[in-house]
Design brief:
Three copies of one chain form a homotrimer.
Chain A lengths: L2 H15 L2 E5 L5 H11 L2 E4 L6 H6 L3 E5 L5 H17 L3 E4 L7 H13 L4 E5 H7 L18 H12 L2 E5 L3 E4 L4 E4 L12 H15 L3 H21 L4 H14 L2 H7 L2 E4 L1
Parallel strand pairs in A: 1-2, 1-3, 3-4, 4-5, 5-6
Antiparallel strand pairs in A: 6-7, 7-8, 8-9
């Protein structure tokens, strides 16, 4: 089976199994995250209160922890839900939004990484670099520049945090500490609407719900998003219509089209 | 006057009276809820703080209580606002999102039902079933399967909670304990974007603001949403364009079109 | 240089300098605010926790304080971030959403005005009137009627609060206490989607980040929004497609088109 076929099978399984993906996510993208899940055939549930997150995650097949608009309360809920997920063998995907921008974000992300076994850590190069203690320029939550090779960084982060690491950027890199996948799909318009990084994270979680090789779960998620972005861009006049078309494409993309457009480079 | 004419008159009155609808709603759909109100000619206001909800609801013509992303604080605010609405004779619509998924949700919904006189209770069959103590499978907040007849369930819930009950699903059922309306409108795409259940709830509130026969307020709201969904689906390539077209249709639908497409079955 | 040219230069500078705009904004429009920033080439960051707002604003080039879904905690964070911005010379734009609707909103807006030096105060006539102690009818957060001349009101508010005041409505008025600009652009559809007032506020902040004559920053922001609204309306079937087209226009509008359509009246 080719790598491209693996990816199409993962998305077919999502449609069949309809995994419930519990999100403790930020309020900027909460609606986009939910619509991303529904468009691919997964089910979203958003729940924050410490009174219920353990019970909710127990009903779920994957958990997203996204610190984009964090407070001490949501970090506490994230850890409660994460530990319960660990106990039950439910995959947990962490998005350390803005790590490095403030001490509170960096420390909260590191605290979650310490308290919860993370299946996939998905961030941009600035965020992942900062978690490794590399001084990276982070402008808010939208990017970052690090004087380091992305593949090397992904591998180091993977080894340090004992998790699959997915770094998104012009070229995405996924590493499990040994193997690596580069994904060369995408479109510049993905950077002109908010929340596409967070969508990538949610897609990682939906994929992880049906595929326990998390390197492949993450790679498939990022490849899928990149390909859908390319297709949506063709039908777009700007970010408004791009966003509409992106959800249409999540929903309607054919597996042949996905397979044909995926541009993966695998280092086993 | 036919039932279909009643529905068109309610939506005409909303355009004329522009009721202000106070929402204590969840953060997934908060933007969609506001845009739904504006598209039909009502005015939304979203306000949560216990410091102001009583004052805000006193300016309003209807109140929505939606527990989708509840916390103990928002439940407290919901009860404060609900009681003030009761005092002033302002209709209150409750959406017990995810009741049954967690104990906190079930208990919070029941607590609101106990403390506040609800005009319309709008949920899916899993949520309403769970509130009645029927063990129902609820997967997050997106659905539910109950081994019971929907009409029977709506009637029982209506009698138990002394409110109009609207259960949405493939066929919607509204009951006031005696009379019942079935609404056979809708499109599968309504289940592929988030928040259409919550939109149904907001529409119930806008209708209740101008029509004190809450059975008809709820039936008109659900009929309107179903018909708009059917029209929007014709112009859609997927959930992204469907959502856009849904708001366009809320805004532009002609009363003749609404009347012609409504598929109601009334049991007086 | 004509006034119209000034406006196009401001938006060119935003594209070049990519200012980071820190938002403490409401949950209805948080996603729209972020997408507005990205569409014009600025960078948004949304951050609320008192643990980090001072650090976050120090990385930013402008700060938005929007009290649409305020709580005592977000008001506290707004003041912390605002004071730090003052210390660092970063412009602060305040949107007193719903001031006058409840005592909590009026008092919170006045408290922020007292504790923080505001660069631009952007509201509708009801909100600004209420802050001046003029009894104004405010229906929720969507409008207001005041028995007073808008230009006079803007001037009085500007003098009282020692800030540029931008009052949006059918005709927008901006005053710095002496000079005044009237902006006659816009379309009725801007009132049929939620958050366009809040978008105006975010645009004011992005403009203020690159133009320290805040009268011109605010006037350019409102002119830009009005012109984009006019263009988007031409391509729209209703509020759903209008919103999509609005973001496309924010992104793609040509400076010649902007210059040609701007309708400004300046009183130096």
């Amino acid at each position: 089976m080719t790598y491209e076929e693996k990816c199409t099978i993962i998305f077919k399984k999502i449609k069949e199994e309809k995994p419930l993906v519990h999100h403790i996510t930020n309020f900027v993208v909460i609606n986009d995250n939910a619509n991303t899940m529904l468009a691919i055939g997964a089910l979203p549930v958003m729940s924050y209160a410490r009174e219920e997150v353990e019970e909710m995650v127990a009903l779920s097949q994957a958990l997203v922890l996204n610190i984009g608009t964090l407070t001490p309360e949501t970090v506490e809920s994230a850890i409660l839900a994460g530990r319960k997920a660990n106990e039950l063998g439910i995959p947990v995907v962490l998005d350390p939004v803005g790590a490095g921008a403030t001490q509170f974000r960096t420390e909260s992300a590191l605290k979650i990484l310490q308290e919860v076994k993370i299946s996939i850590l998905r961030g941009n190069i600035g965020e992942i670099g900062n978690l490794l203690g590399i001084k990276a320029e982070v402008r808010g939550v939208e990017g970052g520049v690090v004087d380091a090779d992305t593949s090397d960084l992904a591998q180091r982060a993977s080894q340090k945090f004992q998790t699959v690491v997915a770094i998104t950027g012009k070229i995405d890199v996924v590493s499990d500490g040994k193997r690596a996948v580069k994904i060369k799909n995408g479109d510049i318009l993905l950077t002109r609407i908010t929340g596409t990084g967070c969508m990538a994270t949610s897609l990682c979680a939906a994929c992880a719900a049906v595929e326990r090789d998390y390197l492949w779960a993450a790679s498939s998620a990022l490849g899928f998003l990149g390909v859908c972005g390319e297709i949506a861009a063709r039908h777009s006049l700007g970010p408004g219509s791009f966003r509409v078309s992106l959800f249409d494409t999540f929903y309607g993309i054919k597996k042949e089209e996905l397979k044909a457009l995926l541009s993966l480079e695998v280092k086993d």
